[in-house]
Structure formats: C-alpha cells, structure tokens
User: Which sequence fits this backbone?
C-alpha cells in the first residue's frame, strides 16, 4: 500500500461520538430501578469514631439501607491491605468515607446523608511526611505489622508511619565525595494535589441471584477491579464481570479501586439491586485518592569540570492515610533518582510515609514529576555554584548508552533513547543562546529555565496484554483489546498498527471501545504510558496470526504456496501475477467453491505480549529492572516576572521528547501539550490546602484552581525518534511525559528571574515575595 | 418560570421539540435533561457552576444547566449538544484534535456555538473571556482556541453553513 498509516495524523475513531454528545460515559446510564449511594465523609482528619447515629437518616423517604464500617470488615489495597472501604474505629483523613446511604434517588440519599450524625474524639494529626518520620510521631496505623502484603516486595516498619522503604546503593560514596570539588545541597517540598478528571469517579454494581457480580465503572483497571472484588468478597474471579465504557479523564486517578467496593457492598445489602455511587466534585477531591506529596533532600558532588561524581538522595513520600500505590511510586522514584544523568556513586533512601491527608494513588508520571522537580532544581543550584551555564552542566552529565541507571540497568540506544539530542533541540526551540535572563525594564524580567527527565514504568514483572481480531464477512476487522479508552488516541493508534501490518483500509477496522472483562482479552491496566507498547505488540502478533491464516487459505484457492502470495488492501494476490487474486471478502469467512464445498471459516487472529526480562528491585541495593525502556526528554519554560507584585506570565513552554517513532503526531502533540498544561497548573497554583486541623480547604473547583483558557503559554513540541526496537514500529510511550519536567523548568526560570531559590510548589507570587523578603531583596 | 410546590409535569422546548417531563421543584435543568429525558450530552463536572461541562444554550445564550432549575427553563428555547448536527464548530473540534477524553467537549462546543451566534466577529479577548467558564483537563486549550477561530472564520465566510 502506498499510503502508510504510521506517522499520520489519524483522527480518533470515536471523534464524532464525542462532538455530538453520543459518547457514553459510565454515569450516563440511568434506569428507574437503579439505587443511589451517597457517601458520608469524615470532617475530622484523625480521630476515634465515638458515635455514629443514623437513626434519623434511615427513616427518611426513599432510604433503603445505611452501611457503616461495622457492616463489612474488609481491608483493601493493591500493595498492602490497610484500608477499610468505610472507616472502622477511627478516621485517618478529612473526607474519609464513614457511612454510605443507599436510597431510591440521589436526592433522597443526599438528604438522608446530612442527617447521619458522627462524633469523633480527635487524635493528634500527622501533617507532613517530615512529621511522619519523626520518632514519637502519632501513628496513623496502629496495627501496621498485621496488614496483609499483596506483593512480597513491600517493607513496612511496624510501630512507625513508614509503610515502605527502598534503597539505592551504587558505587562508592566515599570515593564520589573525594572526587568532588563542588558539593551542593537542596531541600524541596511538593504538596499533594489532585487529578481533577472532568468525569468524577463513579461505579455501579449489581449482584445477580446466581452470585455473579456485575460492575460498571469509570476505571483504568477493570481487570484489577475484578481481581480485588473477587478476592475480598470470596466470589470466583470469572463470576465477576467489569464493564468500562469511555472514561472522562483519569491521569492515574482511576487506577485505584475504591467506589467499586462500596457499590458491591451496597448491592449486597439491598438484595442484589443495582446501586450507583458517583462522587460529587468535592468528594472526588477529598475522599478519593490524589497525588503524592514529596519532601526531598538532594546532595550532589561534581569535579572541577562539572562532571557529577556523587549523588545522595532522601525522598519522603507522603502517601496520605493509606498506602494504595504509594510504595510502588517510592520504588519508581528511587529507580530513576538521578534523573537522566550518569552518576557512578549513588545513595538513595526513599520512605513512603503515612500522614493524615487524603490518600494517594498513581498520578501522571508515577512520582517522576515530583522527582524531576527536585533533581532539576539541584542541577540549577550546582550550575550556579560552579558558575556554569545550566545547559552546559546538563550536557556534560547526560546519560548515554553503555552507562548504567541507578538500579544498574545497562543502557542501549533502544532502551534509553537519545537524551543529549533532546536537550540540544529544546535549547534551540527556546533560543537559550539568546540569554537566560533579560531585564526588560526596571519592573519586568524575562527568564528561561531548563529541565531534563526520563521515565520508565514500574510494572509487575508478569504484566501482559492481549488482542483478538476477528473478520466480518465484508472483510472489515473487529479489534478487541482490554485497554480502556481514556484521553489518548490509543485505540486509534492500535488500529493504525493493525491497518499498516494487514494492509487494510483503517476505515475497515472497527475498534471496540468498551472493555468487558468477560469478552475482552486481558490487559494489566491502562497506565504508565505503556498501552500502545504492550497492546501494540499483542495487536502486531494478532495481525501476523491472521495473515498466516489468510495466506494459508488463499494458497489453497490459488493453488500455490502461502509464500507466493501478498496481502494488499481488499485482496490477496499472486506475487508473480497480480491479476491472479482472491478478494478478502471471499475468504475471511471461508472460501466457497462453485459446487458449494467450503474450506476454512472465520479468520480470528490472536496475540499476546508479556514484557520480558523484568525483575523487582533488590531490597538492599535497589538493583533491578522494572520497566522495558525509558522515554527521555528535555523541557524549557520562558516567563516574565513583574517585580512590583511578583505576578508572572508563562510565555513559552517547550518539550522535546525522544518518543521513538511517533505513530500519530497530532495526537501525540496534543498529549504532550496537555501534560505541559497540567504541569504548569501544578507549578503555578494547584495544591491541597490544609488548615491546622488538617481540614482540606479547597475541595471545589472554585477554590482548587486549574489553568483556564487564555492562561496557557505558547507551546513548542518536537521529537527525537530513536526507535525502541521491541515496540511496534519503534514507538515509545509519551502520554505522561509532558508533565515531568515542566514545573521544574518553570521554577528554574522564576528562580533565575527573582534571584532566589524557589524550591517548593506551587510557585505562587507570595512565595517569591517571601523568599525575596528573607533575602532582603 | 412555572410555579411548583411539589413534583409535577413541565414542558420543555428542547432542540426544537416540546418534551414533557416530571420534575421536582429543586431539580436542575441538568438533572432533567440527563435523568428524565435521556439527553446525556451535557455532563456534570462540579454541579457548582465552576467547570462548564453542563453548558447548554437557553434562547441562544450559554447557560450552565447545573445552575438553572428545570422549572426556570419552561418557556425558553433550549439547545443541547444533541441538537447540533454537523456544524462548523463540531467539524473543527474533530479536525483540530480539540478534545481527548471528550467529557468536557459538549459543554465547550455549546459555549463556542453561543459565541459564534452572538459574537461572530469575536476578538481573541472575547473568545478567552467566554471560554474561561469551561475547564478542559486533557488538552492545552490551544487546540480549542484554534477550533473556535476556524469555525468563526467558516461561519463568517459562508453564513449558510
């Protein structure tokens, strides 16, 4: 076929559904017999539940049942089982669900929910990761040692708030410091924040008379839901069916299983009736999991030429009241702790700590955006200390093939990509050579900041994906995979891969958008920017499987060997004489001879892919490989700071990503720009504000500010395309990466402009004012 | 506004059709559209007027349907995303990759459609002022701005479309 689908701006398959209001999300379903569950959330951050009285609520109109933590004694969690779906005995964060009111309508459930009376005996709170690790800190979990570990590689310290720790020990630190002539240290603070998917999290469940549990959820992890529900409710895995239609934004926040437990409990408590639970925006922010908090200390040593000789890293990761995937994010941060730099001597201690804040789960970048902030602020400090151009310092230290990562993975071009090429290109995009700091007048300063990043996934070593393709009699193809359709054009990109390999018109590929765990082939989770890689490999294999079947059947029809034949759009022809062919439509449901005899039947291709040669991190050294390859990149931000009031404009934001082969450039560009926008929001305004009682102050979109239209800078995006050899057409994941270094670049630019070290997020004008005041500037 | 003290029948003029539905006095227009009439294009995002995902047109003006009672909407002409059919703004949203997950899209498109109707000559400032009432968490907004500008251009050059 002359027209390739690879590298083309193919419009999303579901585009017209989305612009016509026909696209169906989970909460778009309604039915007169659907019951509604409404959560009663704690208004106390840490305290014993002294009294929980729902006697007034239970007699309200429409109320069917009220559940509390006393009704189901289960503890859930994907790594360590520490979280009751409804609080038992005590609450550990403001917003924690303590009761669930089930009624005939949402209005009736809401009216009753405010009549549930809960009284708490307040306990001292743990307000930050730094407080959590202090000896004698209040304990968020009194029985940490008793919790069941879901994976073996989690190391809690009972009697403390440490739910997990991970170490990196590489090289010889004494030697590293001895070789250093310049040593800098920095401390960094990144508060928790929220995903703010526009569709709040919601789930409904129905328990059928034969015990089957049917769940519909807005989730990134339908197969994860199935596993956890099966285990906790003692129902055979195959009897749990999870449906996920289109998902209205997730960014990692919908990989956690939370409302699904409550919906199942609610259905069980009401005789198996279908029950829907849908977060209000306020609940979505305060009750459902958010983004990690991070307190970091980094010490770097370099020789006279600026070559990094030693790096010492301490990361205190705030996982909130429950662990969820916090421990795995701790691993993820430790594994890539140096950023994309070569350092032979590395010492890293990462602690995952409980606090009395909203618990956390994966967030775009899986810890890497927080990590990158600390690393890249440190690089700018080192450059300043050495009186060196920050671009040049980075150039001299970027990791290249032949060197090893902190967890001692040997880098190759395929595994790593080309980091120096990303940095050079971004420097050109932002015109770094025109000056990093320009005084415009006595009030305004223009400045630029840089950041480099890298990321690989932190996946279970047996994570796999699968694909099924089946032919219709018109030679069109149904593509069925277990990946969820969220924002990225994943399913369209998979169709591009399939169309390219099978040489079929992409309009003849029909992609099933919904996931149904009973009929869709398995996929680990739609997370970690790994879906196009993992499912893409499965689709590739399924395509070759189908081609093999088609050519074998066509060979009989055309009386030749399969190898004599060639697939082309709509037909299979004899290579020596293209005039000799059979139409695909005449063969994909079997070939019928004129006398009625038929050979073959429906062509169904299958493919699977499990990531190879992954190993968990060693407990003492961190050695291990938890992801198949890295996607690296470099970013730059240009700002204009007004010294009168420390307000600033973000003028330009640039990303160059080594994304391997970019399969759908328009879609990829959109993802990278959107991720930059999210990162600039986190950099400039977004965070959870807690008062002294650890009450969350900004749980609505009126008080939790996000970037709005017109506030965005000019975006610049470009690519380096070093193929990842094991991926379909050499692609690398790119959905998260635009966020990773962008707030580091922003803080670097603002630090440069303001002449002070801005080492925490978000960088509000007040912070700049405060820092300058401290410095008497 | 129709006066109501208890649940009762109302008639709403939606997308050129008169639709009959049962509502409570406290039910929002968003609730009536989605739960009573099956028009689920308008989305709840905050139910507090902050995000714009539920935007519909009322007499041609964008209104957050979570902030309007269903009874207030009687005697007005309501247009929802389901009432648009292959309009320039829909085509431009598709062409310019102006959405990803698509959840905020109906609200954005309705606001854009209102803008196109009322300010066909909108300046950049007017576009920003109007569209700041909506949140998109996936795109960078650059694509949405490009789509609305392109649609304004199309409409101005060919008013029939």
Assistant:
């Amino acid at each position: 076929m002359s027209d390739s689908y690879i590298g083309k701006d193919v419009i999303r398959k579901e585009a017209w559904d989305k612009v016509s209001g026909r696209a169906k999300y989970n909460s778009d379903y309604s039915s007169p017999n659907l019951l509604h569950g409404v959560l009663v959330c704690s208004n106390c951050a840490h305290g014993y539940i002294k009294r929980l009285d729902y006697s007034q609520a239970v007699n309200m109109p429409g109320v069917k049942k009220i559940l509390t933590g006393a009704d189901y004694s289960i503890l859930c969690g994907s790594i360590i089982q520490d979280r009751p779906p409804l609080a038992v005995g005590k609450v550990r964060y403001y917003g924690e669900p303590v009761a669930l009111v089930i009624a005939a309508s949402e209005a009736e459930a809401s009216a009753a929910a405010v009549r549930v009376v809960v009284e708490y005996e307040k306990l001292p709170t743990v307000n930050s990761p730094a407080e959590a690790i202090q000896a004698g800190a209040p304990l968020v979990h009194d029985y940490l040692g008793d919790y069941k570990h879901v994976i073996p590689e989690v190391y809690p310290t009972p009697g403390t708030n440490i739910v997990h720790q991970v170490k990196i020990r590489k090289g010889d630190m004494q030697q590293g410091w001895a070789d250093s002539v310049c040593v800098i240290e920095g401390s960094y603070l990144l508060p928790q924040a929220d995903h703010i998917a526009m569709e709040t999290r919601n789930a409904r469940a129905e328990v059928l008379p034969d015990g089957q549990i049917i769940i519909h959820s807005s989730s990134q992890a339908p197969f994860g839901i199935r596993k956890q529900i099966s285990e906790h409710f003692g129902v055979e895995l195959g009897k749990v069916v999870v449906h996920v239609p289109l998902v209205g934004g997730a960014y990692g926040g919908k990989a956690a299983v939370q409302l699904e437990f409550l919906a199942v409990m609610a259905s069980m408590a009401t005789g198996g009736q279908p029950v829907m639970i849908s977060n209000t925006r306020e609940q979505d922010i305060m009750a459902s999991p958010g983004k990690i908090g991070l307190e970091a200390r980094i010490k770097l040593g370099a020789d006279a030429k600026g070559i990094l000789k030693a790096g010492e890293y301490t990361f205190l990761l705030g996982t909130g009241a429950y662990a969820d995937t916090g421990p795995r994010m701790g691993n993820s941060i430790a594994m890539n702790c140096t950023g994309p730099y070569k350092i032979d001597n590395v010492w890293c201690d990462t602690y995952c700590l409980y606090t009395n804040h909203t618990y956390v789960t994966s967030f775009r970048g899986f810890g890497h955006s927080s990590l990158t902030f600390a690393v890249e602020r440190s690089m700018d400090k080192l450059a300043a200390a050495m009186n060196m151009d920050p671009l040049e310092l980075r150039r001299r230290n970027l990791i290249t093939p032949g060197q090893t990562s902190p967890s001692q993975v040997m880098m190759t071009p395929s595994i790593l990509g080309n980091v120096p090429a990303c940095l050079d290109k971004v420097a050109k995009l932002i015109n770094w050579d025109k000056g990093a700091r320009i005084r415009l007048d006595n009030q305004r300063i223009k400045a630029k900041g840089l950041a480099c990043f890298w990321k690989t996934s932190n996946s279970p070593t047996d994570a796999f994906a699968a694909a099924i393709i089946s032919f219709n009699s018109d030679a069109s193809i149904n593509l069925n995979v277990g990946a969820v359709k969220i924002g990225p054009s994943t399913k369209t990109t998979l169709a591009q891969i399939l169309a390219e390999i099978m040489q079929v018109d992409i309009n003849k590929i029909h992609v099933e958008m919904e996931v149904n765990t009973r009929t869709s082939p398995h996929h680990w989770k739609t997370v970690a920017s790994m879906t196009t890689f993992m499912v893409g490999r499965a689709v590739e294999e399924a395509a070759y499987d189908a081609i093999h079947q088609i050519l074998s059947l066509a060979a009989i029809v055309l009386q030749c060997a399969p190898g004599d034949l060639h697939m082309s759009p709509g037909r299979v022809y004899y290579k020596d004489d293209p005039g000799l062919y059979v139409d695909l439509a005449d063969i994909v449901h079997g070939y019928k001879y004129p006398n009625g005899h038929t050979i073959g039947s429906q062509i169904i291709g299958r493919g699977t892919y499990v990531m190879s040669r992954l190993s968990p991190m060693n407990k003492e050294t961190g050695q291990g490989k938890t992801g198949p390859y890295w996607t690296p990149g470099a970013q730059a931000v240009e700002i204009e700071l007004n010294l009168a009031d420390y307000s600033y404009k973000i003028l330009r934001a640039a990303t160059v990503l080594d994304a391997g082969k970019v399969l759908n450039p328009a879609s990829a560009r959109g993802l990278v720009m959107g991720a930059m926008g999210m990162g600039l929001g986190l950099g400039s305004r977004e965070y959870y504000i807690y008062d002294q009682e650890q009450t969350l102050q900004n749980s609505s979109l009126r008080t939790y500010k996000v970037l709005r239209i017109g506030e965005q800078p000019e975006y610049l995006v470009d690519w380096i395309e070093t193929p990842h050899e094991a991926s379909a057409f050499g692609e690398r994941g790119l959905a998260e990466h635009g966020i990773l270094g962008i707030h580091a670049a922003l803080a670097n630019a603002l630090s440069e402009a303001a002449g002070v070290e801005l080492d925490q997020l978000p960088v509000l004008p007040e912070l700049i004012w405060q820092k300058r005041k401290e410095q008497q500037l | 506004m129709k006066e109501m003290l208890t649940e009762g029948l109302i008639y709403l003029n939606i997308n050129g059709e008169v639709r009959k539905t049962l509502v409570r006095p406290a039910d929002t227009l968003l609730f009536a559209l989605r739960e009573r009439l099956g028009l689920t294009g308008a989305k709840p995002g905050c139910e507090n007027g902050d995000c714009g995902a539920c935007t519909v047109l009322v007499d041609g003006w964008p209104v957050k349907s979570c902030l309007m009672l269903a009874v207030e909407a009687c005697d007005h002409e309501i247009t929802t995303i389901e009432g648009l059919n292959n309009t320039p703004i829909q085509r431009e949203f598709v062409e310019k990759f102006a959405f990803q997950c698509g959840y905020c899209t109906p609200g954005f498109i309705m606001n854009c459609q209102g803008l196109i109707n009322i300010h066909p000559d909108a300046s950049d400032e007017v576009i920003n002022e109007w569209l700041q009432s909506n949140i998109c968490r996936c795109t960078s907004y650059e694509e949405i701005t490009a789509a609305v500008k392109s649609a304004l251009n199309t409409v101005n050059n060919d008013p029939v479309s």
